[in-house]
Amino acid sequence: MKKNKHKKILSALLIAITLTVGIILGLWQVKPPRLDESSPDYPVYQRMMSNIERLASEPHPSGSAEIERVRAELIAEIKAMGLTPIVEDVSFTPSELAEIFLWIDGASSVEQWWFWHEEWVRERHNIHSADDWFEYMVKHQGADTLQNILVKLDAPNTDRGIMFVAHYDSVPNAPGAADAMVGVCALLEVMRAHAQNGALKNDIYFLLTDGEENGLLGAKKFVEAHPELKDKIDMVVNLEARGNRGGLILFETSPKSYNQMKTVVRSGAKPIGTSWAAEIYAMMPNWTDFTVFLNHGYQGVNFAAIEGVEHYHMPTDNYENLDRNTAWQYLQTTLALTDYAANHSLDGLREPSQDAVYFPLLPGVLVLMTAWVSHIICAVSCVLTLIFGWIQIKQRRLKISFTTVLMGLLLLLSIGSAIWFAAGAYLFYIPLLAMTVTLFMKKWTITHIAAKMVSGIITLLLWVPVVFLLWVSMVQPMML
Q1: Which domains does the chain have, with CATH numbers?
Q2: I need a surface site. Which of 183, 236, 380, 476 has the fewest CB within 10 A?
Q3: Residues 6+ away with beta carbon under 8 Å from 40
C-alpha cells in the first residue's frame, strides 16, 4: 500500500516536471531570439531602428504627402550606398481596380462585391455606389500615383537570383512601424551589406512595393510589367506583419516547397514555421504581396510577425511599440538569407521539388523532411503500435485504459492525417511512436521513466506551438 502511494506521488511529480518543461520549451520555440548587444550585427540593428523611427513617424498611405517623403528618403538612402534604385510609376483605372478587388474577394461580379461591402463603404466613406468607390480609390487613395522601388545587385556570370519584397505604404491611420517598415528597413541593411559585393553567386533583387494596403496594387502591376523575371527569380522572400511582436513566423510557402525550405534552413535563418499552418493558410481567403507572385507561378516563402494583433492597422503600430527582439529577428533572418544567396549556388531551387513537412523541435531548431519521409515514419509508428497491440492480445494482457484508448485514437489520426492532411500528420505519429516505444520498456525502471518524460516533452514541443499559433492568429483576433 505504501509502495503504491509512493508511486502515485512520484508519478504526479514526474507529470508536473514534464508539463512544466514541455510548456516552457514549447512556448520558447515560437519566441524571437533575444537582442544581442554584443553581436557584430548590433550597430547594423541600431541603424535599422533609427531608420524605422524616422520613416514610420507618421501614417504614410499611398498617394499621401507623407509617403512622398518616405519614398524620397528611401531613394536617397539607397543612392548613398552607391546603388541605382529604379522607380516605376504605377497607375490604375477604376475598371482595373474593380477587377483586382473582385479577384481578392472572390466575387463573381461588381454587383456581388458591392453587396458584400456596401454597408462598410457607406459608413466609412459616405459613398453610395461601386462605380463611385473605384473612382474614389483612384482619385483620393493614390491608385494613380503609386511608385515601386526596385534595386538589383548584379552577380557576374549569371542572370538568376532571389528577390526580397516588402511594402512601404501604410494604412491611413497607422505609422506602420511593423506593417511593414521593419521589413523595409531590414532590407535596406542587407542591401548595404552587399552593395559593393562584386563576387555575388546570384543576382539579388529588392522590391519595395507601394499600394499593398490598397489591394496589392504595386505588386500586381510589377509582376505584370516584368514577365521576363519569372524565369530569373528562383525564390521570392516576402516580409510582412500582422502584429508588432513575437517570433517571425514562416507562415506561407509556394507548393512543393521542400527545396525552398531546405535553402532557408541551410541559410542559418532559424525560421519559426510549421507545415500544417502553411497548409491551413493556403485554404484561407487572406492575401499579401506574396499572393500575387504565387498566382503568377513564382516560388518562395512568406514571413510575418503575428503577435500584438491589437496594434495591427492601428495608431499604436509605431516605433515605440515595436518589439525590439522581433525587429532583431527580421534583421537576422534577412541577413542570413541574403548572405546565403550571395555565397552559395541556388541551382537546386529549380530542380523538381516535393511537398515539405517541417516543424520546430527545441528553440532555433526546425525539423525538415519530404512528405515521403514523413509517410515512412508514420507507417513505422503505426506498424509498431499494431505489433504492440497484437503482443498484448496474444499474451491476454490488453486492457481498456486511458493509454489504450489514446493510442488507438493516435493510430487512427496518424493514418487519417497521412492520407488527407500530410502536412500535419507528424502531430500524431511522433507522439504515437514515442508512446509505443516506452510501452515496450520494463515499467518503473530509470530508462522507462526517462523515456516517458522525454515522450511527454516531445509531444508538448509539437502541440504547444499549435495551440499558441491558433490562439494568436485566429482566436485572439476574433475577441478584439
Answers
A1: 2-30+369-479 (no CATH), 42-91+147-353 (3.40.630.10), 92-144 (no CATH)
A2: 380
A3: none
